[in-house]
Amino acid sequence: MHPRGDVTNGVTCYCLFCLVTLNPHINPKLSIASKLHLLEKHSDKNYREREIKAMAFKASILFTVCVYALTASCLTAISGEESESKEFVLTLDQSNFTDSVAKHNFIVVEFYAPWCGHCKKLAPEYEKAASVLSSHDPPIVLAKIDANEEGNRELAGEYDVKGFPTIKIFRDGGKIIQEYKGPREADGIVEYLKKQSGPASVEIKSVDDATSLIGDNKIVVVGIFPKLSGEEFETFLALAEKLRSEYEFGHTLDAKLLPRGESSATGPVVRLFKPFDEPFVDFKEFNVDALEKFVEESSTPIVTVFDKDPSNHPFVIKFFNNPNPKAMLFINTSSEASASFKSKYREVAEGYKGEGISFLLGDIEASQGAFQYFGLKDDQVPLVIIQTTDGRKYLNPNVEPDQIAPWVKEFKAGNVLPYKKSEPIPEENNEPVKVVVADTLQDVVFKSGKNVLIEFYAPWCGHCKKLAPILDEVAISFENDPTVVIAKLDATANDIPNDTFEVQGYPTVFFRSASGNILPYEGDRTKEDIIDFIEKNRDKTAQQEPAAQHEQEPTKDEL
Ligand SMILES: *[C@@H]1O[C@H](CO)[C@@H](O)[C@H](O)[C@H]1NC(C)=O
Ligand SMILES: *[C@@H]1O[C@H](CO)[C@@H](O)[C@H](O)[C@H]1NC(C)=O
Ligand SMILES: *[C@@H]1O[C@H](CO)[C@@H](O)[C@H](O)[C@H]1NC(C)=O
């Protein structure tokens, strides 16, 4: 089992797929195409001080995310680590960031937060890389900025920093900005940045050049041209410039130097080399968009494998970046049935090629983060789960190899009901504040005919802990009023219908009056204010007798 999150210096770092824990050589996902806003802009009001705006769980998957959590532990670790001697990494802040970037042709900036564990892991590696690269010709400058610092937050927002660490490459005085998509350990950083600071595409002049560029286990895009000029060549260079942070590019006048593919090709042709499925693909349409699409499509495996092998991890990241619905089969790859699963699953994936579903096969041993995220249990393995673009999930637990194809077909036909993550329904619920889980949300909140104040919380959230005793008091003061319910739901362990409750931070408190009027609670987090709010917004018509206890019947119509 892998750690499901580490808590250091008051920070919870979730490593969803534990890629970073397994291996620092991978390209952790740095920018998340989602609504994840770790850098919540704090406004004056109390309720705005939400610790995190991270309920992007509906739409996307993260790999490494540090989020705020106010645990009082290990504050010592910070002070222990700060006594470094000479620093090669430049420290920037809002006063000199713009100038520093403008002064450099090529500068790398890490946006970090002091509490983020992944940043702390990166720091010595980044520093070591900076010292090596300081003697590169020309020197390559590495800088950092504390994006958590009040004064720097606006900058971080401007550059769309959504998780920590986020590293960006600024070229040409800041006119061109790219995501850093390289490794996070010193040698890897050095190698990646040397390549990034050189030309976007390198000329292949010998078999040795070709061998060292292309290798066996990465995606490399090579242009074969009759001459190194002209429109096609320029188009290819523009593509290389655009995608350089993600792929390596080369060009050559001589296809015979290349390890695979037709050696008599004279071009112009783009040949993509890859370590899975067919070992190379040619493409001849020379416009940047078509080429980009070609590169994206050909560089996605038919079945992405997620296991402990680090060379697979960049593809896992690609898989989750992809906007398609995602089918994931989780099995125990060491079990006897695994070969049969693999071949059947691959058949299914091949059958849906070009139909906009991406397929991943995950090993249960490597996927604990995913299990927690989706609310899955080991005893449901082998299982298939499909996550659609709108965040819905469809689950087929304890599946047999032969059942996958028909089930995916049913899914495509719209005949499968969504699956909802829920904690078990509590057997006892006698505390003043009632525990609600996804499977009881309908009954307690929507169908009870009562006035319900519900708090969406995260177990690690400090503000939630502060609010808890206050809610207790509120609940106690309504104890003799059966028409008012004070409830709480652990939003990290239960799916919430987002069209009703927009939960983007913790705690989020909503009120639903007996007649169905839904309001966010945005007042001060005091007993008096909350009670006033309830009194003001409640319906007096609420049904008086206690509603029947619904013990089960998970509702399937809400997600
Ligand atoms: C930017 O300003 C901060 C705060 O004054 C300072 O600590 C830092 O060294 C400066 N960095 C550069 C590159 O001038
Ligand atoms: C996977 O299967 C192997 C071989 O049957 C077994 O030893 C191992 O415990 C299984 N792992 C899990 C997580 O079930
Ligand atoms: C809520 O989820 C639906 C799909 O379930 C999605 O289309 C919509 O954008 C989400 N709304 C918000 C406010 O996040």
TrEMBL record:
SUPFAM superfamilies: Thioredoxin-like. Keywords: Disulfide bond, Endoplasmic reticulum, Glycoprotein, Isomerase, Redox-active center, Repeat, Signal. GO terms for biological process: protein folding; response to endoplasmic reticulum stress. One of its GO terms (molecular function) is protein disulfide isomerase activity. InterPro entries: PDI_thioredoxin-like_dom, Prot_disulphide_isomerase, Thioredoxin-like_sf, Thioredoxin_CS, Thioredoxin_domain. Residues 535-559 are annotated as: Disordered. It is found in: Endoplasmic reticulum lumen. Its EC number is 5.3.4.1. One of its GO terms (cellular component) is endoplasmic reticulum lumen. The keyword Metal-binding does not apply. Disulfide bonds join C116-C119, C461-C464. NCBIfam families: ER_PDI_fam, pdi_dom. Belongs to the protein disulfide isomerase family. Participates in the folding of proteins containing disulfide bonds, may be involved in glycosylation, prolyl hydroxylation and triglyceride transfer. This is Protein disulfide-isomerase.
